[in-house]
Every structure is written in C-alpha cells, then in structure tokens.
Amino acid sequence: MEYLASGMRQEDILADFPDLRVEHLQAVLSYAADREKRLSDLTTA
Fold first, then answer.
1. Which of 26, 28, 34, 44 has minimal Cβ neighbours within 10 Å of its Cβ?
2. Residue 17 backbone zone (phi > 0: left; psi -120 to 50: alpha; other: beta)
3. Which long-range contacts (CB under 8 A, 24 or more apart) does 1-6 make?
C-alpha cells in the first residue's frame, strides 16, 4: 500500500517484486477498502 500511495505504478512494483502478480495488488487494494469501510462503520455507529 505504501508504494501505491506514494505514486508508484503497479508495473514498477511488479518489476521490483517479481514474485508478485497483479492479483496480489488487487487483493491488497480490496483488503484496504474493506478495512476502511469497517472502520468507518465503527465510527458512525
């Protein structure tokens, strides 16, 4: 997440970490979105 947040492109991340695949980055983004939603739900409840 830190790499993406700093503006690094997915292609660059994948080049730097050859064991990663696009699906891994998508899973990270999905996890972060779900976590944000859960945290938001807790603060508005």
1. 44
2. beta
3. 1/28, 1/29, 1/32, 4/28, 4/29
Boundaries of domain holding 16? 2-44
- Predicted local distance difference test score (pLDDT) of residue 42: 83
Q: What is the rounded distance in angstroms from the CA atom of residue 37 to the CA atom of residue 19?
A: 29
CA 14 to chain centre: 13
* Number of domains comprising the chain: 1
pLDDT bracket for residue 45 (50, 70, 90): low
Instruction: Record the pTM.
Output: 0.75
Give the pLDDT of residue 6: 96
